[in-house]
Write a structure and sequence with these properties.
Strand content: 15-25%
Number of helices: 14
Mean pLDDT: 90
Strand order of the largest sheet: 2-3-1-4-5
CATH class of the largest domain: Alpha Beta
Distance between the termini: 53 Å
CATH superfamily of the largest domain: P-loop containing nucleotide triphosphate hydrolases
Shape: globular
Structural class: alpha/beta
Amino acid sequence: MAIIAIVFGSYCHGEEVIARVSKQLDYKDIVSRLFNITSQRYNVSADQLLQSLVPPPPPVAKSLIAQELDLAYLQTVLAELMEPDKAIISGCPAFLIPANISHVLRVCLIADVAHRRSNSLKIDGGSEDDATARIKDDDLKLATCAAHFSHRPVYDESLYDIVIPMDQTSVSDAAAIICEQAQSEAVATTERSREAVAGFRLASEIKVALLQKGWRVEVFAEAGHVIVGINDHVLNMKRLQTKIERKVMSFPGVTEVTTKLGSKYSPPSANPWNDVDVPPRILLVDDEKEFVQTLSERLRTRSLESTIAYNGEQALEMLKSDVADVIVLDLRMPGIDGIETLRRVKKQYPGVEVIILTGHGSKREQEIAEELGAFAYLQKPVNVNELARVMKAAYMRAKGKT
């Protein structure tokens, strides 16, 4: 029988329908297992994984490469959990499933706003405006996932095999429809569809390995042939392609590798700051000398000059004579750590915007950094184009232009 992927709007009886389908077909909703296994295997909190799947708006949002790595972790585990049948994948994780896996019954449960608002008021109370706001917030989260993976609106009927209007359908009838369709030949498991799951798993494992190298990529695998789309702009693309091909060929089962420009690739403009009259004063603070020097050089190729400090004390001393507009600050440093440096910078120079860039941060440190006024919290490895984008946003705020 088919694997069942169910996307549902809030206050559309989704949980009740899933419970009935699970009982009638002896299926398990694997979403909790997905997050638990991924969290334990990759030492990433479930909250962080959820934040990558449903990212908050800037400046809280993490770097693109960190987000994509978390999603690749989830997809790797999801592919494993999909190998046996009789699984339900509900909510946003349903969008992680590639479209080429044919034994997935894709279901959407939705209702008109009046019906959802009425249910919201019964369940959570408050005013009609409160209910409407809750529904909009929930729909935005689903829409973010749909846009990231399918580039279509979340309630676009073409994304699903079945769309059930829950303002016109009872829970029992909706469950009966899903159970009947899950047993139809149209979504039956075949040898080819199982091979698609195996390709999904291989592609996800390869994507994790490449992202951990700091390479933003998209990966597709089928019958041993792996296609890698490169989304980073680099000075020597041929050299990067060779490195990627060598890495991918080390995976068991890979017989052929093709590299190409990815769907999200876009070369930077000659000067991404050409609408800024006064050059920004950028200070990079990190005790990893090789990393921060390389970062400075890569920013220079994007017409962004920067100065470097190798610890918090040095940074604070430099600010006395030349106050920066934007600081990119590591957390773990000898002496004054990043949190204390941030605290002192925001106290002494409140107009300076600080971007945290760390490879060893925790959820609690992120919360503290945000409370202290950090503009953004990014994790290494970071895509330089993404960092430059965040730096420009920080600069515009520092200059009172946003």
